[in-house]
Amino acid sequence: MSQEEKTSYSQEELREFEQLIHEKLAVAKQELTMLKDTLGKRNDSGTDYTASTSKVLEDGADTLERESINQLAARQQKFIINLEKALMRIKNGTYGICVDTGKLIAKERLRAVPHTMHSIEAKLAKR
């Protein structure tokens, strides 16, 4: 049976994707923890008050860096949520099926982006 004729992945294939998602989830959670730790340390690092221009520039750079780390943490949190939703789709039997076309998403795409809900054709058609 060719991939086009299949309507869902086998239990063995789903286990492979589930393992991949769990691995990516572990790494993503570890990275999120590191980002949060970095933010916590940056917020705790008090410096002596000085009225110099360099202090103002330093504060501006610190604020910019904190905002950047916050954005990274938010993206990482969204990635984690999407991976967890993919695990739910595996459990309810809808994993790997494109929400736009109803066809099976290619294995290569799922290996690269295991939380996707769109085939590459559907993704490109949206552009």
TrEMBL record:
Protein name: TraR/DksA family transcriptional regulator
Domain Zinc finger DksA/TraR C4-type: 93-116
InterPro entries documented for this protein: DnaK_N, Znf_DskA_TraR
Record Gene3D superfamilies: DksA, coiled-coil domain
Keywords from the UniProt entry: Metal-binding, Zinc, Zinc-finger
Zinc finger (dksA C4-type): 98-122
PANTHER family: RNA POLYMERASE-BINDING TRANSCRIPTION FACTOR DKSA, RNA POLYMERASE-BINDING TRANSCRIPTION FACTOR DKSA-RELATED
Alphabetized PROSITE patterns for the sequence: ZF_DKSA_2
Any one GO molecular function term: zinc ion binding
